[in-house]
Amino acid sequence: MGSPFRAQRIADDIYWVGAIDWSVRDFHGYRTGRGTTYNAYLIMGEKITLVDTVKAPFKEELLSRIQDVVDPAKIDIIISNHAEMDHSGCLPDLIELAKPEKVYASPKGVEALRAHFRGELNIVPVKDGDEIRISGEGTATGPLSVRFMQTPFLHWPDSMFSYVPERKALFCQDAFGMHLASAERFAEELPDGLLQEEASRYYANILLPFSGFITKLFAKVEAAGLDIAMALPDHGPIWRSKFGLVLDWYRQWAAQKPSNKAVVLYDSMWDSTDVMARAITEGLIHGGASVKVMPLSGSHRSDLATELLEAGALVVGSPTLNNQMFPTVADALCYLKGLKRKNLVGAAFGSYGWSGESIRQIEEVLASMDVELAGSLKTQYVPGDETLEQCHLLGERIGERISGRVSAGA
Ligand code: FEO
Q1: Looking at the structure, do residues 110 and 171 belong to the same domain, yes or no?
Q2: How many CA atoms lie within 13 A of 23 on its CB side?
Q3: Ligand 1 pocket, 86 CB below 6 A?
Q4: What per-residue confidence (pLDDT) applies to 410?
Q5: What is the predicted pLDDT for the residue at 1?
Q6: Does the CB atom of residue 303 touch ligand 1 within 6 A?
Q7: Would you call 400 helix, strand, or coil by DSSP?
Q8: Does one domain contain both 230 and 317?
Q9: Annotated active-site positions, please?
């Protein structure tokens, strides 16, 4: 019986042979409402070269798409740009099947792949600037080479880019990717709004902690003078004419400049913290902020991270439950703390019955995130008019501050 999966020709001798995961909705804690793709690429040079593999359960899809172009056993070279298992999951099986002449990864990639697969994988480490020739003069493709560039922490310490100068093609693994399952393989086939939404969600949930490395990477790519006609990530669409868009977004997100947007996230037991949230929100609006209110009873942590990507303030509310902040608030703060969004002002608020530890606990997490505290408010049981006025004033103070920052061009 034939396979339903086909390769897609991307350019000249480059084919997309990845997998489309239409149904995944949770990617290690990140809600992937539109699924994802695990992209792998075949370069039909004199030496047939596979760039990355796919998540293990999608092995048959990968092999079928390769088979649509060439017998997978004929692959000569495999390049592993990133060891995370959504890209390396089929690597041991591919090595077993194809018995390639060479498998290449960064030095950290070699370590990571051996640690993942616990075998004697024979992988050659490549350094920054190393280059291999995959087609020579006088071949059907003409000369083709692959140059390697180390991109540590974009996304893991092992990550690297592979660049084919003769095709101006940059194989960039997680960078410029997004979790989006689609029939379209190219960014220009998709609306800008959708691209920005999913690229920002990916950046906020995956790459934000590494923004410092990303800023340095831009300088490195500029210094290397790479001419890029095509950026081929391991998730989502391939960038050609719209590559400038995502470059601009990445520069902006990596800078983490504060805006006049405040994110208010909270949960409530008997509506008291909810009422406080509403009063603070009114104050924020009055102070000139744009506000995104996210009740945690219905907001996923990856949506919070996405909203916070271009914010200037984080205001967190929680009642005290059994001497602790509310579990949904703890979940949210644990996630956001790891993502390390910089340059925020913030505050904690909430109601309590008799002990009221949640405010101090929230303040401690915010302080550990380097959030500049603009004040905190707690009230016993149910907030009265005076407390609600204080809530309004706290919101107003934060709103004035972040809207002033923006107008001052900070
Ligand atoms: Fe798509 Fe860091 O793996």
Answers
A1: yes
A2: 2
A3: yes
A4: 39
A5: 57
A6: no
A7: helix
A8: no
A9: 28, 82, 84, 86, 155, 174, 202, 235
Distance CA 232, CA 198 (A): 16
pLDDT value of position 409? 41
1 located within any domain: no
Q: What's the CATH number where 323 sits?
A: 3.40.50.360
Same domain, 78 and 175: yes
Total residues belonging to the chain: 410
Three-state secondary-structure class, residue 44: strand
139, 83: one domain: yes
Indicate if 59 and 157 belong to the same structural domain.
yes
Report mean pLDDT in 10-residue bins for the chain, 410 residues: 90 96 96 98 98 98 98 98 98 96 98 90 94 96 96 95 97 98 98 98 98 92 90 98 97 96 98 98 98 97 98 98 98 97 97 97 98 97 98 98 65
Number of domains in the chain: 2
Same domain, 272 and 352: yes
- Point out the ligand 1 atom lying closest to the alpha carbon of residue 206: 2
10 Å CB burial of residue 311 (0-12, 13-18, 19+) is: buried
Residue minimizing CA distance to atom 1 of ligand 1: 174
Token pair listed for 142: 């003409």
Residue located via tokens 């050609």: 240
Please tell me the residue having the least CA distance from ligand 1 atom 3: 84
Interval between CA 271 and ligand 1 midpoint (Å): 40
Within this chain, do residues 222 and 363 fall inside the same structural domain, yes or no? no
* 109, 248: one domain: yes
Does residue 174 line the site of ligand 1, with CB under 6 A?
A: yes
Beta strands in 165-289 (DSSP E): 169-173, 230-233, 261-266
Does residue 410 lie within any of the structural domains?
no
Q: With a 6 A CB cut-off, is 55 part of the ligand 1 pocket?
A: no
Cβ–ligand 1 distance for 21 under 6 Å, the answer no
